[in-house]
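Bench log. Compound arrived from synthesis this morning; before running ITC I wanted a structural hypothesis for how heme C sits in the protein. Inputs:
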Amino acid sequence: MKNSDSDQKVKLTDQPLFRIGMIIAIVLVLFIGLQQWFIPKSFGKTGHYRSDNIQEWTEHELQYAAGSDACLTCHSNVKNIFLSGSHEQLNCETCHGPAVKHPNNPMDSKPSIESSREFCGSCHQTLTGRPDTVITQIDLGTHMGFANCSDCHQPHNPGFKFGGAD
Ligand code: HEC
Ligand code: HEC
Ligand code: HEC
Ligand code: HEC
């Protein structure tokens, strides 16, 4: 008669400890392999981040000129009314968009002109969370019908001018 199973020699690959060991080894190799694959080359060179990132940001092209001063040198007619009005604290490019190329090439690269009610409303529309002690607010839906804001307010000096912007 054959004896019970316990007498047979258990193969190495059937040992539970060996199997667990193999699983751990495979997971480790996978982990290290994937880590090599996914971690960017420049990670850790100068700290706990990807150091190429610095270079990449410095390569972005400039979009904005250096404040309103970069515009007022040429636009003296705007300057005359702008600096005495309540929009004086805004940069020209807040409304006219990024325009770094325009001063060197005024005819070919023109800044945008945005004069919709919605655009002015992005700062002046009444909002619950917007303190009207800081910025005067109007209800876009009811304030003076549907006419363009610049029909009545000169955007460069928005204190009301009867008869339209000058
Ligand atoms: C070197 C002089 C110069 C500088 C600096 C300059 N501009 Fe101009 N800009 C011009 C000229 C010239 C025109 C064209 C005028 C025309 O069309 O009659 C113009 C036109 C414009 C227009 C009207 C565009 C259109 O479609 O009619 C806007 C808006 C404008 N500039 C904004 C700016 C802003 C904002 C800046 C600052 C970033 C600026 N400018 C700096 C010379 C300049
Ligand atoms: C609050 C938004 C706003 C700001 C800030 C602003 N603009 Fe304007 N700008 C406008 C609008 C809107 C028009 C179009 C006006 C119209 O349709 O009558 C305009 C028109 C212009 C024009 C063409 C017509 C004109 O009046 O000569 C020039 C040039 C110009 N802006 C330059 C400037 C410069 C330079 C600055 C900064 C000193 C500036 N703007 C700041 C909103 C703005
Ligand atoms: C980037 C935000 C911003 C945008 C866009 C903007 N404004 Fe203003 N506006 C201001 C600030 C800031 C003031 C000064 C504080 C105040 O009086 O509300 C002001 C003031 C005003 C005033 C009060 C003027 C006064 O002297 O009592 C009027 C009217 C006005 N803006 C109209 C406009 C119109 C029209 C446009 C669109 C062409 C516009 N605003 C776009 C920020 C903005
Ligand atoms: C038909 C002319 C007209 C149009 C169009 C118009 N407004 Fe006015 N706005 C006025 C008058 C007049 C006042 C002054 C009313 C008052 O004091 O009650 C005024 C007042 C304001 C004030 C408050 C100024 C203060 O000192 O209290 C703001 C902000 C304003 N307007 C922004 C705008 C904006 C933004 C638009 C475009 C969405 C616009 N307005 C369109 C005529 C106009």
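What the model suggests: Helices lie at 16-38, 52-58, 69-72, 76-82, 92-96, 117-124. Residues 10-58 form one domain.
ITC booked for Thursday regardless.
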